[in-house]
Amino acid sequence: MSRNPRIRTALVTAGVLVTTAVGTVGVSAATSGGDAKAYAKPAKPAKEQIAALFDGWNEALQTNDPEKVAARYAEDAVLLPTASPEIRTDRAGIVDYFEHFMEGKPKGEKVRSIINVLDENSAIDAGIYKFHLTDAKTGKCRTVEARYTYEYEKRDGKWLIVNHHSSVLPPAS
Fold it and tell me: Whose C-alpha in 33, 115, 120, 142 is 20 to 30 A from the C-alpha of 44?
């Protein structure tokens, strides 16, 4: 090595730069091949996929089986239902609500939906829907318009409702 301190510093600096560059290329090569997919962030679901979650919920409602509807909710879900002042925070409470709500043979119909996909595991669907209900005693049908918000999370590969708020649409002021 040179006795000149300037040349010696330049040689050491060049050696460090070459070592760093080789290490960077090696790391890039290791992560850019077939292994890149293993490190890729999962894609966000399409808005249509999130919209279809309501369709599945509505189909479960049509079975007249409150357990099937409740199965679409996470164990720690919160339900602020349309036709009850009681906040439901566990499976038993959610099943109880749907046992009573299903007496009217409800069928949901979205009027307007705004979907926000937050990331690959969470999304919000909010808007206005109608429920067509049939009175069990008289057979008379009526329609109730309501505002709704569904918050979904993908848990263990399955989309579940973690928060559901529904309230009767107030009259225009």
Answer: 33
Buried b (16+ CB within 10 A) or exposed e, 155-168: eeeebbbbbbbbee
Q: By the 8 A CB rule, do 152 and 124 touch? A: yes
Per the CB < 8 A criterion, the answer to whether 109 and 124 are in contact is no
Nearest to 80 by CA among 70, 69, 94, 91: 94
Global pTM value: 0.76
More confident residue, 111 or 6: 111
Token pair 């808007």 is at which residue? Answer: 127
The label of the residue with tokens 């918050």 reads 151
The DSSP line for 52-77 is: HHHHHHHHHHHTT-HHHHHTTEEEEE
